[in-house]
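Sequence in, structure out. Go.
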Amino acid sequence: MAADHHPPVITTTTISTPVIIDQTTILSFLTALSLLITAYLTSLRLLPQPSTPFKIRILYIWHLFDALTHFLLEGSFLYNCFFTYTSLAPSSSDYPHPASLSTRTTTIAGAGYFLGHKDRLYGSNYGTNPTARLWQEYAKADSRWGGADLT
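Output:
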Protein backbone atom coordinates (compact mmCIF):
# COMPACT_ATOMS: atom_id res chain seq x y z
CA MET A 1 0.00 0.00 0.00
CA ALA A 2 1.64 3.18 -1.20
CA ALA A 3 1.24 6.32 0.77
CA ASP A 4 0.20 9.45 -1.07
CA HIS A 5 3.26 11.63 -1.38
CA HIS A 6 2.52 15.23 -2.08
CA PRO A 7 5.31 17.66 -2.73
CA PRO A 8 5.97 19.88 0.26
CA VAL A 9 4.36 23.27 0.20
CA ILE A 10 7.01 25.94 0.26
CA THR A 11 6.00 29.37 1.29
CA THR A 12 8.30 32.26 0.69
CA THR A 13 8.29 35.59 2.35
CA THR A 14 9.76 38.40 0.36
CA ILE A 15 11.26 41.16 2.38
CA SER A 16 11.72 44.18 0.23
CA THR A 17 13.84 47.07 1.17
CA PRO A 18 12.44 50.40 0.20
CA VAL A 19 14.26 52.25 -2.53
CA ILE A 20 15.74 55.37 -1.07
CA ILE A 21 16.32 58.19 -3.48
CA ASP A 22 17.95 60.91 -1.49
CA GLN A 23 19.25 64.33 -2.46
CA THR A 24 22.75 63.00 -3.22
CA THR A 25 21.36 60.42 -5.66
CA ILE A 26 19.24 63.00 -7.46
CA LEU A 27 22.15 65.45 -7.71
CA SER A 28 24.42 62.68 -9.02
CA PHE A 29 21.96 61.73 -11.76
CA LEU A 30 21.41 65.38 -12.67
CA THR A 31 25.16 65.93 -12.85
CA ALA A 32 25.62 62.97 -15.20
CA LEU A 33 22.69 64.14 -17.31
CA SER A 34 24.09 67.68 -17.49
CA LEU A 35 27.45 66.30 -18.68
CA LEU A 36 25.69 64.34 -21.42
CA ILE A 37 23.67 67.39 -22.48
CA THR A 38 26.86 69.49 -22.49
CA ALA A 39 28.56 66.92 -24.74
CA TYR A 40 25.57 66.90 -27.10
CA LEU A 41 25.32 70.70 -27.30
CA THR A 42 29.07 70.95 -27.86
CA SER A 43 28.76 68.51 -30.75
CA LEU A 44 26.09 70.71 -32.31
CA ARG A 45 28.29 73.76 -31.92
CA LEU A 46 31.62 72.31 -33.08
CA LEU A 47 30.71 69.67 -35.65
CA PRO A 48 29.26 70.85 -38.98
CA GLN A 49 25.55 69.98 -39.03
CA PRO A 50 24.85 68.59 -42.49
CA SER A 51 28.22 66.98 -43.25
CA THR A 52 28.92 65.11 -40.00
CA PRO A 53 27.79 61.46 -40.14
CA PHE A 54 25.56 60.27 -37.30
CA LYS A 55 28.14 57.69 -36.19
CA ILE A 56 30.85 60.35 -35.87
CA ARG A 57 28.54 62.60 -33.85
CA ILE A 58 27.67 59.76 -31.46
CA LEU A 59 31.37 58.91 -31.02
CA TYR A 60 32.17 62.58 -30.38
CA ILE A 61 29.40 62.87 -27.79
CA TRP A 62 30.48 59.65 -26.07
CA HIS A 63 34.15 60.62 -25.88
CA LEU A 64 33.42 64.14 -24.66
CA PHE A 65 30.97 62.79 -22.06
CA ASP A 66 33.62 60.29 -20.93
CA ALA A 67 36.29 63.00 -20.70
CA LEU A 68 34.02 65.33 -18.73
CA THR A 69 33.14 62.48 -16.37
CA HIS A 70 36.78 61.67 -15.75
CA PHE A 71 37.95 65.24 -15.32
CA LEU A 72 35.07 66.55 -13.23
CA LEU A 73 33.69 63.63 -11.23
CA GLU A 74 36.78 61.50 -10.80
CA GLY A 75 38.89 64.61 -10.45
CA SER A 76 36.72 65.53 -7.48
CA PHE A 77 37.86 62.29 -5.82
CA LEU A 78 41.45 63.49 -6.06
CA TYR A 79 40.45 66.90 -4.75
CA ASN A 80 38.89 65.27 -1.69
CA CYS A 81 41.97 63.08 -1.18
CA PHE A 82 44.25 66.11 -1.02
CA PHE A 83 42.13 68.83 0.56
CA THR A 84 39.42 67.16 2.69
CA TYR A 85 40.53 65.82 6.05
CA THR A 86 39.81 65.44 9.71
CA SER A 87 42.33 65.89 12.48
CA LEU A 88 43.19 63.07 14.86
CA ALA A 89 43.74 63.59 18.53
CA PRO A 90 47.25 62.48 19.55
CA SER A 91 45.69 60.06 22.02
CA SER A 92 43.46 58.26 19.47
CA SER A 93 44.09 54.63 18.53
CA ASP A 94 44.49 55.66 14.89
CA TYR A 95 47.36 58.08 15.57
CA PRO A 96 49.60 58.07 13.63
CA HIS A 97 47.45 56.89 10.76
CA PRO A 98 48.35 53.37 9.53
CA ALA A 99 48.20 54.49 5.89
CA SER A 100 51.42 56.40 6.33
CA LEU A 101 53.97 56.03 3.58
CA SER A 102 56.46 54.37 5.90
CA THR A 103 56.75 53.35 9.51
CA ARG A 104 60.42 54.21 9.85
CA THR A 105 61.51 57.02 12.11
CA THR A 106 63.08 59.88 10.26
CA THR A 107 64.75 63.05 11.28
CA ILE A 108 62.79 65.11 8.77
CA ALA A 109 59.66 66.47 10.46
CA GLY A 110 56.56 64.86 9.00
CA ALA A 111 58.38 62.73 6.44
CA GLY A 112 56.72 59.41 5.75
CA TYR A 113 53.14 60.56 6.26
CA PHE A 114 50.54 61.50 3.67
CA LEU A 115 51.17 65.15 2.81
CA GLY A 116 53.45 65.33 5.85
CA HIS A 117 50.63 65.21 8.43
CA LYS A 118 50.51 62.22 10.76
CA ASP A 119 47.59 63.75 12.63
CA ARG A 120 45.12 63.83 9.69
CA LEU A 121 42.85 61.43 7.85
CA TYR A 122 42.19 62.46 4.25
CA GLY A 123 39.31 61.62 1.94
CA SER A 124 35.69 62.23 1.10
CA ASN A 125 34.49 60.54 4.30
CA TYR A 126 35.46 63.71 6.13
CA GLY A 127 33.90 66.28 3.81
CA THR A 128 30.55 67.99 3.45
CA ASN A 129 30.81 69.38 -0.08
CA PRO A 130 28.58 67.90 -2.81
CA THR A 131 31.35 65.84 -4.40
CA ALA A 132 32.37 64.46 -1.01
CA ARG A 133 28.75 63.37 -0.52
CA LEU A 134 28.84 61.70 -3.93
CA TRP A 135 31.95 59.69 -3.01
CA GLN A 136 30.54 58.89 0.44
CA GLU A 137 27.56 57.33 -1.34
CA TYR A 138 29.87 55.39 -3.62
CA ALA A 139 31.92 54.27 -0.60
CA LYS A 140 28.85 52.55 0.84
CA ALA A 141 29.43 49.86 -1.81
CA ASP A 142 33.24 50.00 -1.78
CA SER A 143 34.82 51.58 1.29
CA ARG A 144 38.13 52.26 -0.49
CA TRP A 145 36.54 55.32 -2.14
CA GLY A 146 35.91 56.99 1.21
CA GLY A 147 39.47 57.89 2.03
CA ALA A 148 42.96 58.43 0.73
CA ASP A 149 44.39 54.96 1.29
CA LEU A 150 48.09 54.76 0.65
CA THR A 151 48.47 51.05 1.27
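Check: The helical segments are 23-46, 54-83, 130-139. The chain is about 40% helix and 5% strand.
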